[in-house]
Amino acid sequence: MIGAALVALVAVIHLVILAMEMFLWETRQVRAIFGISPEFAANTRVLAANQGLYNGFLAAGLILALIRGVPGAGAELAYFILACVVVAGLYGAATSSRRILYVQAVPAILALIAVLFGI
Predict the structure, then answer these.
(1) How do residues 2-45 score in pLDDT, each as one tens digit?
(2) Contact of 85 with 10, CB cutoff 8 Å
């Protein structure tokens, strides 16, 4: 059941990212989290909303995996979505901010390991 809890945690992380990027991008709090200026936030709000939508798709896939059952019928979907999150997190850490490694990739790696081993 640890695997299911970690999958749920990764889904929640991506729902929070969706909210920040799609709806809260220009707020002071979110600008501080991402380290961006008001001008940059205004100029990139459409791009950020698009990124947020993709994070929502990741969360939706993980939620569907949980509904199907982890462990169980949803495990294969969880493997795929978690692997996508790991790749995206590693790429983001390499190209944007090392913090992405800890916020996205590490939780997804832990969830993937837990689901793979049925923990």
Answers:
(1) 999 999 999 999 999 999 999 999 999 999 999 999 999 999 99
(2) yes
DSSP state of 23: T
CA atoms of 12 and 32, how far apart (whole Å) = 21
Tell me which H or E stretch contains 101.
none
Query: In the chain, what's the furthest Cα-to-Cα distance?
Result: 47
89 burial (CB, 10 Å; 0-12 / 13-18 / 19+) is buried
Tell me the whole-structure pTM to 2 decimals.
0.94
Domain boundaries along the sequence of the chain? 2-116
